[in-house]
Design brief:
- The complex is a heterodimer of chains A (140) and B (346).
- Chain A is of the alpha+beta class and 140 residues long.
- Chain A has 2 helices and 6 strands; from the N terminus they run αββαββββ.
- Helices cover 19% and strands 32% of the residues of chain A.
- In chain A, β5 (109-115) and β6 form a beta hairpin.
- In chain A, α1 (16-28) crosses α2.
- Chain A is globular and about 60 Å long.
- The two termini of chain A are 17 Å apart.
- The model of chain A has no long low-confidence stretch (mean pLDDT 92).
- Chain B has helices at residues 50-57, 59-69, 74-95, 117-130, 144-147, 155-166, 189-202, 215-224, 226-230, 243-256, 265-277, 284-304, 312-316, 320-324, 327-330, and strands at residues 107-111, 139-142, 170-174, 208-213, 234-238, 260-261, 317-318.
- Chain B is globular, with a radius of gyration of 26 Å.
- Chain B is 47% helix and 8% strand.
- Chain B has 15 helices and 7 strands.
- The chains are: A alpha+beta (140), B alpha/beta (346).
- The interface between A and B is medium-sized, with 38 and 32 residues.
Chain lengths: 140, 346
């Protein structure tokens, strides 16, 4: 199962050269970039763990690539994404966010049906990974 | 389920650029080549006019500017020409598919204060940018304070932060020997040095590190950090300026601020510099600038107390008396220590 969250998620994974070009685009727009990681890919879990602080005052995408690489080395089996924050007044929100690493065995989600009163059914998603303890969800 | 529901962190607006513009990166292995400077996609040419190539990159303009605007420093200028020539040839070789490892570009500038190390470093960044060795070509100047933290675990992120800011350009570390404190082996400076070394080795394509400082203390620094010394290819020594050069610098500085020496002010300034040069804490071009600043003050003072009508020429001219009132002439040599304070001239 291929997790589709954020920009570019319907495309094959970006190469480092493509990633660098996207980061350059974000820098050219004056967006601050940050790196985040998680092993709980539920679509409603938007609070991923921060990899260091958001990076301001950078000029070259190599610097962000360096942090992405360090994060990849530290967490080879987790989702990692890059966020670009646009601070301009009136926007002040995430301008671009995309996944830059996924675990090799993406487990996906189970659809749960909850029986309610009057034969009502409530649907919810449950990541298979969440059955395991945090930190060992995507480890082999 | 619509696509939007997968995007919990706010709808990314049409932000990203089309992917296909990102795809064709420089074909020939060396990803550090900034766009525009070389076109490896071109067919292998029959021959290359290296000189024309270099001219096209605009690197000679920077070097000519350097020649024109910086007085003296002949060994430095020769070295920079040599480095630029090497890089141009390297660029040409790559066009023929003659892959060589990217030359090591980390440098060490040694010399007394005020000999133009920072200025040359700035030019160096521009030259490397024009030749395509640096993506951005900016200069980040730091000292120990900005690299070394105050408690355990503070140094690494701090150093890395600075390195990230300098990526794509030049990191200029002034008085680099302060990073290493011999008397305290638990000093956090060592940690900063280790991270620096790591980045200098692994991110060679993204950053050029220039260390600067006094010659003897730099040598000492390298002997206690052999790893650092061996990673620096170019050691450039900045000689002190001669008296003639100092006067020439003064003339250029004055010209830049639309002032000029009167006919007998220039010999006076020469004499002032002659006295100043032998004194402690003489800082070459910086001392020239300070002396000129004070001459301007005295000139202003003289003009304000002058009752007659002032012409444009009067406002521009520095007279000999503005210089002779300097403390270096009026006070006994024993009472003079270090830089001149601004004292009432009479």
């Amino acid at each position: 199962m291929h997790l589709t969250q954020g920009t570019f998620s319907y495309l094959p994974p970006l190469t480092d050269a493509q990633l660098k070009a996207q980061l350059q685009y974000a820098l050219d727009n004056g967006w601050a970039l940050s790196v985040e990681f998680t092993d709980d890919p539920h679509p409603r879990n938007f609070l991923w763990d921060m990899w260091g602080l958001p990076m301001f005052d950078l000029r070259d995408p190599a610097a962000i690539l360096l942090e992405v690489q360090r994060c990849r080395d530290a967490y080879p089996a987790r989702y990692i994404r890059v966020n670009a924050y646009d601070r301009t007044l009136g926007r002040q929100t995430t301008a671009l966010s995309f996944i830059v690493q996924r675990p090799s065995n993406e487990m996906g989600f189970r659809l749960e049906r909850q029986e309610g009163p009057d034969r009502q059914v409530r649907y919810t998603l449950h990541p298979y990974a969440a059955d395991r303890a945090p930190g060992e969800r995507y480890e082999r | 389920m619509t696509r939007e529901s997968h995007v919990p962190f706010g709808m990314p607006r049409p932000a990203a650029l089309p992917l296909n513009t990102a795809a064709p990166q420089t074909g020939s292995g060396n990803g550090a080549l900034a766009g525009g400077a070389t076109e490896p996609e071109l067919a292998i040419p029959e021959g290359i006019n290296v000189e024309a190539e270099a001219r096209k990159s605009g690197v000679f303009e920077v070097i000519d500017d350097l020649d024109r605007e910086l007085v003296g420093l002949d060994p430095v200028k020769t070295r920079i020409r040599e480095i630029a020539a090497l890089l141009v040839v390297d660029m040409a070789r790559r066009r023929f598919g003659l892959e060589a490892e990217r030359p090591n570009l980390h440098m060490c500038f040694t010399g007394s204060p005020g000999t133009g190390k920072t200025t040359v470093a700035m030019r160096m960044a521009t030259i490397l940018h024009r030749l395509g060795y640096l993506a951005k070509g900016h200069l980040v100047a730091v000292t120990r304070d900005e690299l070394v933290g105050q408690y355990i675990g503070h140094t690494a992120p701090k150093t890395r932060e600075v390195l990230k800011r300098a990526m794509g350009g030049v990191l200029f570390i002034d008085e680099a020997y302060y990073l290493h404190r011999q008397e305290n082996e638990r000093d956090y400076g060592q940690e900063a040095i280790e991270i620096l070394l790591q980045v200098m080795e692994n991110q060679r394509n993204d950053i050029v590190v220039i260390l600067a400082g006094y010659r003897d203390r730099m040598d000492q620094f390298f002997s206690s950090n052999p790893g650092m010394g061996s990673r620096i290819a170019h050691h450039i020594d900045f000689p002190d300026y001669s008296l003639d050069e100092l006067v020439a610098i003064a003339r250029i500085m004055l010209d830049g601020q639309r002032y000029a020496f009167s006919r007998d002010a220039e010999p006076a300034f020469r004499e002032l510099m002659l006295r100043r040069m032998t004194q402690p804490r003489f800082a070459n071009a910086r001392s020239v600038r300070n002396a000129l600043e004070r001459a301007r003050l005295r000139q202003a003072n003289r003009l304000v107390s002058d009752a007659r009508l002032l012409t444009r020429d009067d406002l521009m001219r520095i007279e000999a008396e503005d210089i002779y009132k300097s403390r270096w002439f009026t006070e006994a040599p024993e009472s003079r220590t270090g830089e001149e304070r601004i004292v009432p001239a009479d």
